[in-house]
Amino acid sequence: MKRLFLMVSLFLLSACSQKMPSATVSSIEETQTTSSVETKTATPTLFIHGYAGGPSSFGHLIQRMEDNQIAKKEMILTITSEGKVEVEGELSGKETNPMIQVLFEDNESHEWNQAEWIRTALAYLKETYAIEHVNLVGHSMGGVSSLRYLGTYGSDMSVPQVEKFSAIGAPFNDFIDTSSIQTIDDLLENGPTEFSTRYQDYQAMMATMPQFSTQLIGGQLSETDFSDGTVPLTSALAVYSLLKEQQMSVDYTIITTNAQHSQLHENTEVDQLLQQFLWND
């Protein structure tokens, strides 16, 4: 414990000489949870992969959740390029914290198509199982497309309403890095100092978005590299202030161990954060 405290202290002292001294870094000890979940529900959680992703993108994380008896994988929904739903498995209706893996046949399509395909998946759940509420977890572009879905279709009462949304390494401000000109505190309070078209779209959508709780997870490779190697940390956290302005519940965590972009969904600290946010709150 003393060694951990010393390491964290050294990091913070070093960070003070960088452009982003206010970054709040999560550690395994700070987010440690038990392998059990006190209360389980029948609310499904949909896991949505990133650009060029597939079954392995969230497959190992979902398996770990099952192995630890935290949640149960009950279904795979594959959305074809034509917007049809291919189904493997079925929802039990039991309080198992059911997990649904969502796969896009055209896994390199743009976020507008993916937002529509997310709606297709949710419409299937409503029509087939009368599901009223869901959670969404998106990695990378899966997070971007999920927020675009929420801004475009989120208030549509003909599909299940989203209660919780977790975004892991999602480039909400595209790949613009503002870390050289603003601190994390400034970003969280005021938003990025440079806007992408994508971020401006979110700005325009905020007023009509439904209420939901959000978890933002970003990676930081080192004291001098404020990114996960692909997505700038300032982009992964860019929508924090927008959501706060709408009086939504938002939290964020910066991952500094095994923080490379494609490894974030293989990171057991991320497992713990998801467990706490989705099923222990």
TrEMBL record:
Output the SUPFAM superfamilies linked to this UniProt entry: alpha/beta-Hydrolases (SSF53474)
InterPro entries in alphabetical order: AB_hydrolase_fold, DUF915_hydro-like
Q: Which PROSITE patterns match?
A: PROKAR_LIPOPROTEIN
Keyword entries, A-Z: Signal
Gene3D superfamilies of this UniProt entry? alpha/beta hydrolase
Q: Which residues form the signal peptide?
A: 1-19
Indicate yes or no for the key word Zinc: no
Protein's name according to its UniProt entry:
Alpha/beta hydrolase
Q: What is the lineage of its organism?
A: Bacteria, Bacillati, Bacillota, Bacilli, Lactobacillales
